[in-house]
Design a protein that fits this description.
It contains 16 helices and 24 strands. It is an alpha/beta fold. It folds into three domains: about 80 residues, MurE/MurF, N-terminal domain (Udp-n-acetylmuramoylalanyl-d-glutamate--2,6- Diaminopimelate Ligase, Chain: A, domain 1, 3-Layer(aba) Sandwich); about 230 residues, Mur-like, catalytic domain (UDP-N-acetylmuramoyl-L-alanine:D-glutamate ligase, 3-Layer(aba) Sandwich), CATH 3.40.1190; about 150 residues, Mur ligase, C-terminal domain (Protein-Tyrosine Phosphatase, Chain A). It comes from Salipaludibacillus agaradhaerens.
Amino acid sequence: MLLHDLIDVLPAYKMVTESNPLISHLAMDNRKVEKGSLFFCIRGYTVDGHTFAKQAVEAGAVAIVAEEDLNVSIPVIKVRDSKRAMALISARYYHFPSTRMHMIGVTGTNGKTTTTHLIQQILTDHQIETGIIGTMYMKYKGKQVEVKNTTPDALTLQHGFADMYEMGVEAVTMEVSSHALEMGRVHGVDFNIGVFTNLTQDHLDFHKTMENYGRAKGLLFAQLGNGYGNGKQKIAVLNCDDAHFEKLETMTAVPILTYGLSEHADYRAINVHIHESGTDFQLVKGNDIYDISLKLTGRFSVYNALAAITAAAASGVPITSIINSISNVQGISGRFEKVDVDSPVHVIVDYAHTPDSLKNALETIKEFAKGKIVVVVGCGGDRDRTKRPEMARIAEELADYVYLTSDNPRSENPQTILEDMEKGLSKNTYSIIENRKEAIYTAINQAKKDDVILIAGKGHETYQIIGNETYDFDDRLVAKEALEERF
């Protein structure tokens, strides 16, 4: 595609050195540049792509998108925001693939992964070929691609959409993080349905305030617009029980469908009963009431199910088909996942890494625990420090005993993280064991019959990041080994 045809999608730019080369590749990493590439200079947290412009030219780049003047021999397209320009140009390069599929974006602090998986299962069971993108992977048509971020960068995203469409995918359900919205990664993605799960404390290292964090989440609904990009009405699906609901209402111009436990919800749950193997409730839609039995445990699972039910209904799936599908979902990897070992001690692994998600997990365990509740928990390094004492406080309040340990310390000193967490504790019902494997083994070896151990924070992750090194580590496997060794 010719350069001028690509950059026509930009609302404003300055062309330095007039030329119109053929673009045969897009790159944001100079090490991936090839002959015919359009190179995007992206400012990152630690690296500035502008410093690699000359290397990109040497590697074969024929044009560059940048935010500043560059001393290079090829055309430079100067823009205010390279990330957003990259998102729009990559969408244009791949012929706007999102407009050719039914797009569902799910945003919120907690519940995104479970909700997207529930939606995917419902649509798939209804014979709609559906792809999924999120924290765990990009998956479609039997193909699975690992991704670095909950919402990948725009180049990865648009290339993925194009590949999905070429392989016959009809719908995509994807997690949309606040970082992705703030940084413009989903610019140029034509969502049909936006889903909001909830808003609780997280990522304040990036957003600084809850107000900024909430505004970032709202961008998904603000950009839905009121058009018919692919001939379908856009719809916002909102949790009306969340404190941020009224703010989101004002941020979108599209029709809204609500879900929750409150009486005025369009899709409402009543008579919720939580047990160890799942959750039962009744769905109220208008004058109709439907019985639902989930194999997912917890009140938070009811909200995730309601979000998925509402999004699927808005996608045209009959309510009876939705209920049949959602009742058969076995569980999501690393989300309140029970470690499958026949033992008198119960171990649950959950991705809970925010104060609210930890609170939800522990409150759910309280619904069925016969013995004591023990939690093994840490906090990630190079992330929001303000939530560390709060995570520990919640663990102490809702569990009988707490083991503070490492999560992914990254470049931080693990002891510093643990000291931050310890500030939230006031009782002498805890131990600090920096080594995560040792903490898990100790918790299991000290547990008594009918005790329930929650291993929180990492969920599906199969690695641990310490310093600049990434090691193999899976909470589920470590717990399984410890249980089998003891019992």
